[in-house]
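Cross-check.
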Amino acid sequence: PVTKLSGGVGFRVSPTVFFDVAAVYNLTTEAFEDLDYTVTFQCDCLTVAVRYRQIRQEISLNVILGVSDRLTFTTPPP
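Predicted model, tokenized:
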């Protein structure tokens, strides 16, 4: 059997920027399986996350579009 330990920590750098580190450590092989660094930017209806996976040497970019709380819709009177 394989025993793994995983965890992560993150902190808000500013109201629109978040930094996160996550890791998976294999206790059986005494080595990291994953070590990820993610920076997330939020602006109104757009969220952009850049992730670097150190062990796999991968970079990914996620772009998410959503409805902003600042948008309001009104219907004109008849």
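The chain has one domain: 4-65. The mean pLDDT is 91. Passed to J.P. for a second look.
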